[in-house]
């Protein structure tokens, strides 16, 4: 089984149905089985409202052996105004129940394998959120629970809430992660960048979740000139690191993207990778084939 997860945020908006299906079929053919989506993908697209990725996946899943596919989706980060992240729909119990029902309908399945609390909802007590999520596991609608984009103090607070109330554990923890360090002025809100300290905290929890990193390839920037990094990562140290990674990848006979995914995996973080074309996907995953 491929030790990576396929990200599908652009399916149904930036990537049409035919190309989305091609990428999904290639992923399965290469030995993949885990697929990542969310109910707000891709509300930031000019024609997106959220739910497009899940809907495309649902059409594809209907033609597959459901038992062979691990479906991961997320709730709680749908933009209320449809354009900004200033106000999200959050993780209040009623919204959790409504959101999972809508996701199951779009995904054309009776359960999801992993359900993430997508962005921490500081306006809802952690106990209320996790009791409701745990109830979904007990009834079989959800197999396992995860968190994404929680600050470290809130992760530790949630772990205490779970322990004290005998609730379902955090099985997966997903954060923004790549080998380059963002500039100190970079603001990815509401996304949370995984730091070394946060990584260490997650590794030493009594019930250690699988640690997952999204946006590992920064939209292909590792294949470009080191002088053309995204503004949020554009600094001398990162330029030097990209050049070093490109040299290492060349020596290994693979693309830099493939090498980056391998380095991240070997470090102990499961990467979520995306592609708009099956050939690019195969190239990116070549270190694991």
UniProtKB/TrEMBL annotation:
InterPro entries with a match to the protein in the record: AKR_Detox_Biosynth (IPR050523), Aldo/ket_reductase_CS (IPR018170), NAD(P)_OxRdtase_dom_sf (IPR036812), NADP_OxRdtase_dom (IPR023210)
Name of the protein described by the UniProt record: Aldo/keto reductase
NADP-dependent oxidoreductase domain span: 4-288
Signal peptide: none
Organism: Enterovibrio norvegicus
Source organism, top-level taxon: Bacteria
PANTHER family: NADH-SPECIFIC METHYLGLYOXAL REDUCTASE-RELATED, OXIDOREDUCTASE-RELATED
Pfam families hit by this protein: Aldo_ket_red (PF00248)
């Amino acid at each position: 089984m491929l030790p990576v997860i396929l990200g599908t945020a652009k399916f149904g908006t930036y990537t049409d149905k035919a190309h989305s299906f091609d990428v999904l079929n290639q992923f399965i053919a290469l030995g993949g089985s885990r697929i990542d989506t969310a109910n707000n993908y891709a509300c930031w697209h000019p024609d997106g409202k959220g739910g497009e990725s899940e809907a495309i996946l649902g059409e594809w899943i209907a033609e597959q052996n459901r038992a062979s596919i691990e479906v991961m989706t997320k709730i709680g980060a749908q933009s209320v105004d449809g354009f900004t992240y200033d106000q999200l729909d959050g993780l209040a119990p009623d919204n959790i129940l409504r959101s999972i029902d809508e996701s199951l309908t779009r995904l054309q399945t009776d359960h999801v394998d992993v359900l993430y609390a997508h962005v921490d909802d500081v306006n809802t007590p952690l106990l209320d959120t996790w009791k409701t999520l745990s109830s979904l596991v007990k009834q079989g609608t959800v197999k396992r629970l995860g968190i994404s984009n929680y600050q470290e103090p809130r992760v530790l607070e949630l772990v205490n809430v779970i322990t004290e109330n005998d609730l379902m554990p955090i099985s997966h923890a997903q954060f923004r992660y790549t080998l380059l360090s963002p500039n100190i002025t970079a603001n990815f809100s509401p996304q949370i960048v995984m730091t070394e300290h946060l990584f260490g905290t997650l590794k030493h929890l009594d019930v250690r979740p699988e640690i997952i990193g999204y946006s590992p390839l920064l939209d292909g920037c590792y294949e470009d000139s080191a002088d053309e990094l995204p503004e949020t990562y554009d600094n001398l140290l990162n330029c030097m690191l990209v050049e070093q990674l490109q040299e290492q990848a060349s020596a290994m006979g693979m693309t830099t993207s493939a090498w980056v995914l391998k380095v991240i995996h070997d470090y102990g973080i499961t990467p979520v990778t995306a592609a708009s074309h099956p050939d690019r996907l195969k190239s990116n995953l070549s270190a694991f084939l």
